[in-house]
């Protein structure tokens, strides 16, 4: 860390003020909201027999490889650039976070082992545990801090102290970024990023070592290719549900009670970016699952196009407009576009894959 | 309720000793009951053997929900799903119909019920829907299921109800949600809903009541399981915002605070705020909950409260345990056993199994 920056932080901390840079409104991340380059952006016209292999080699494996690679880069950058406002650190963070969002719908198999996905992404944080946990950690004594250097020990910490969402607050929350001494903050940044690099490497390794083959050659965990397709379909529908109900629905709240403070990663103004990234990531998955039915694949593409072009037109990076009637209306329209994708997928793609609306899940009794 | 009927209520619950194991629950007879729906949308209650084969199907006039077996006679009662108004008594060896019960005018069933220990009374959870009062209907199982009367359930929206095992009496899950058949299944009182677990003594009076802390007011206590020592396992259904981290299973003994399972485990959110069925393992060490909304079964250690297993299965809801472990059914027609983290299918049927799997022994 450059000495002058350290002194600046110390001074700011001693005076109890946040650095000027942190108190000004944050610009949206300027790089385009694009999938990691290894991930396919659209699926070709596939024969149904090629479906699973294409989803593995064009979507899942490159997605988790990019996540592991970018998280390793982030941990490497953090070794020498660990001040919250450091441009290189923030850029590496944004790039790794993009890679997570691009696979955040793939919640089965290696990501669920040992709660890895939760350790990377504790969101939504409905009880607001992250700020308090970070505050306690930042003010912890030296012994605790020394412990963080041991990755095994840090991995035992609460998931509210780990992963992208804790790091986001540490890098962008004006109070938290300057609460502790720079060395203490730096130690925590390094511990979190090292932990994320380990977790993402473990997921990627497990996918390559065994789980990809469980999808390719059904035997024990998945007994048939139909079950594999159903698992992939569930990741699509769950991803769409999280997009509509959580990423959009939580900040929208109700007309009378909008909840802008619930927008995902609002401190770094990444909320809208995540919506665009998840749409971009799920579109090729949906297209691939529609393989063999040209009309359906075309309808899927049209439905995603509509939502993506609507999202592209929005200029509301942190979804702060949920309380403003005109801006809110545009977000509600986008939410409706997502609902339309869900309806199309559930009513037409699901039955093709042998998935019908749940007799019990729709019951509510 | 009249003095005479209260005395009758008391008679049912004060029978000495446990009822004998039903002699008919043997080889060749059903091990489980479950409601379901055929591929062409007809509803039924089925008797299943341990292999998951269907031994009989009793047609139901509309969608069923749970069922309960008589402690000594080979009879079971299949309940309508709320707000239904039929409860069919059948011979549970053959499925032959014996009687159809209809609640008094102005009441509907909630889908669950239980016999008294001596088998002389049948108790049914009911909604007196014009007042919204939660009731327990009392029927004379020794006299052609004559309606005797009713008592208060101790709350709104009574759903599951069980016999206590540590004392004479009933335990009722009052889900707290008011509904009226005129508005279908719409929830009418969410702003003020207050679920509870109510213990009712042999005299029909409330002996104990559990309410969870105010921040869990929207967590509707809905389904129950009883361990041999009398511990009550309860499963809840969250009515508030999605994305909240919430306990879904709890354990309770009267006079003690509730213990909520898996608190702070992020996998709780995989349940999507919805517990469909709850059951204890036969050895009482584990408690399990199904969530069709999450497509997942979770098993917790009763002593530590920690989640020990999570198993994914699409539209899973029916849940029971037998000597081999937990047994589950799903809306996709599967009957399966759970072995460690794997689903071991017993039978795949071309029909949809409804919410509950009721063990007969």
Concise synopsis of the structure shown:
With 365 residues, chain A is mainly α.
How does this structure look, described?
The complex is a heterodimer of chains A (365) and B (361). Chain A is an all-alpha fold and 365 residues long. The model of chain A is unreliable at 1-25 (pLDDT under 50). Chain A starts with a helix and ends in a 13-residue tail after the last helix. Chain A folds into 2 domains: 50-217, Up-down Bundle (A middle domain of Talin 1), CATH 1.20.1420; 223-356, Four Helix Bundle (Hemerythrin (Met), subunit A) (Up-down Bundle), CATH 1.20.120. Helix content of chain A is 64%, strand content 0%. The radius of gyration of chain A is 21 Å and the shape is globular. With 361 residues, chain B is mainly beta. Chain B has a single domain (3-14, 28-359), classed as Methylamine Dehydrogenase, Chain H (7 Propeller), CATH 2.130.10. Chain B has 1 helix and 28 strands. Chain B has one helix spanning 3-13, and strands spanning 32-38, 43-48, 54-60, 64-69, 75-80, 87-91, 97-101, 107-115, 121-128, 133-140, 146-152, 158-163, 170-174, 196-200, 206-210, 219-226, 232-238, 249-252, 259-260, 277-280, 286-291, 296-301, 307-312, 316-322, 325-330, 334-339, 342-348, 351-359. In chain B, the strands form 7 sheets. A 4-stranded antiparallel sheet of chain B has the order 3-2-1-28, with no helix packed on it. Chain B has a 4-stranded antiparallel sheet with strand order 4-5-6-7, with no helix packed on it. Chain B is globular and about 50 Å long. Chain B starts with a helix and ends with a strand. The model of chain B is unreliable at 16-21 (pLDDT under 50). The A-B interface holds A 108, 112, 115, 118, 122, 124, 126-127, 159, 220-221, 230, 234, 245-246, 249-250, 355, 358-361, 363-365 and B 37, 65, 81-82, 111, 159, 185, 222, 237, 241-245, 266-267, 274, 276, 292-293, 295, 310, 312, 314-317, 330-331, 342, 352-355.
């Amino acid at each position: 860390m450059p000495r002058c920056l350290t002194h600046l932080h110390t001074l700011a901390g001693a005076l109890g003020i946040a650095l000027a840079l942190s108190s000004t409104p944050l610009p949206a991340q300027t790089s385009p909201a694009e999938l990691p380059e290894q991930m396919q952006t659209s699926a070709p016209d596939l024969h149904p027999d090629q479906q699973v292999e294409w989803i593995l080699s064009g979507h899942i494996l490159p997605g988790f490889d990019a996540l592991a690679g970018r998280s390793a880069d982030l941990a490497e950058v953090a070794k020498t650039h660990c001040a919250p406002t450091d441009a290189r650190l923030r850029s590496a963070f944004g790039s790794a976070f993009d890679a997570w969002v691009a696979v955040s719908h793939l919640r089965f198999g290696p990501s669920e082992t040992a709660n890895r996905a939760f350790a990377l992404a504790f969101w939504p944080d409905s009880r607001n545990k992250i700020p308090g946990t970070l505050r306690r950690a930042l003010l912890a004594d030296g012994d605790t801090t020394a412990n963080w250097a041991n990755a095994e020990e840090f991995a035992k910490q609460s998931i509210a102290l780990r992963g992208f969402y804790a790091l986001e607050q540490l890098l962008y929350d004006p109070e938290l970024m300057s609460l502790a001494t720079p060395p203490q903050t730096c130690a925590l940044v390094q511990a979190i990023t090292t932990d994320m690099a380990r977790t993402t490497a473990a997921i990627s390794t497990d996918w390559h070592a065994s789980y990809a083959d469980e999808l390719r050659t059904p035997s024990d965990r998945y007994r048939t290719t139909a079950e594999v397709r159903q698992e992939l379909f569930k990741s699509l529908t769950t991803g769409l549900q999280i997009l509509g109900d959580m990423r959009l629905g939580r900040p929208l709240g109700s007309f009378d009670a909008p909840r802008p403070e619930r927008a995902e990663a609002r401190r770094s103004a990444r909320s809208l970016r995540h919506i665009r990234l998840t749409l971009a990531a799920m579109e090729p998955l949906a297209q691939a699952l529609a393989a063999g039915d040209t009309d359906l694949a075309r309808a899927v593409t049209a439905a995603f196009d509509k939502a993506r072009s609507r999202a592209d037109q929005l200029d509301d990076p942190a979804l702060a407009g949920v309380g403003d009637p005109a801006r809110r209306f545009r977000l509600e329209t986008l939410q409706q576009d997502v609902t339309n994708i869900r309806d199309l997928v559930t009513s037409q793609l699901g039955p093709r894959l042998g998935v019908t609306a749940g007799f019990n899940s729709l019951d509510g009794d | 309720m009249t003095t005479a009927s209260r005395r009758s209520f008391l008679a049912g619950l004060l029978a000495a000793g446990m009822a004998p194991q039903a002699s008919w629950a043997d080889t060749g007879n059903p091990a489980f009951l479950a409601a379901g729906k055929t591929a062409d949308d007809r509803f039924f209650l089925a008797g299943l053997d341990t292999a998951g084969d269907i031994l009989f199907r009793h047609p139901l006039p509309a969608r069923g929900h749970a069922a309960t077996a008589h402690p000594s006679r080979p009879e079971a009662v299949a309940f309508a799903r709320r707000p239904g108004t039929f409860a069919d008594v059948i011979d549970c060896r053959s499925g032959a119909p014996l009687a159809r019960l209809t609640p008094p005018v102005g009441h509907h069933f909630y889908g669950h019920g239980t016999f008294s220990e001596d088998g002389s009374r049948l108790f049914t959870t009911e909604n007196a829907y014009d007042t919204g009062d939660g009731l327990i209907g009392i029927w004379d199982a020794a006299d052609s299921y004559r309606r005797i009367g009713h008592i208060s359930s101790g709350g709104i929206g009574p759903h599951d109800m069980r016999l206590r095992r540590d004392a004479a009496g009933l335990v009722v899950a009052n889900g707290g949600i008011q509904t009226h058949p005129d508005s279908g299944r719409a929830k009418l009182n969410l702003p003020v809903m207050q679920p509870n677990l109510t213990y009712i003594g042999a005299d029909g009076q409330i002996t104990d009541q559990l309410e969870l802390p105010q921040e869990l007011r929207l967590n509707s206590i809905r389904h129950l399981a009883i361990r041999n020592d009398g511990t009550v396992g309860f499963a809840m259904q969250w009515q508030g915002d999605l994305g909240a981290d919430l306990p879904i299973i709890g354990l309770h003994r009267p006079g003690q605070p509730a213990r909520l399972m898996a608190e702070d485990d992020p996998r709780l959110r995989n349940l999507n705020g919805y517990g469909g069925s709850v059951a204890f393992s036969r050895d009482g060490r584990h408690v399990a909950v199904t969530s069709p909304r999450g497509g997942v079964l979770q098993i917790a250690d009763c002593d530590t409260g920690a989640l020990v297993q999570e198993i994914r299965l699409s539209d899973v809801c029916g849940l029971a345990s037998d000597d081999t472990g937990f047994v589950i059914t799903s809306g996709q027609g599967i009957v399966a056993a759970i072995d460690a983290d794997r689903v071991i299918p017993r039978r795949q049927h071309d029909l949809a199994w409804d919410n509950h799997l009721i063990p007969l022994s």
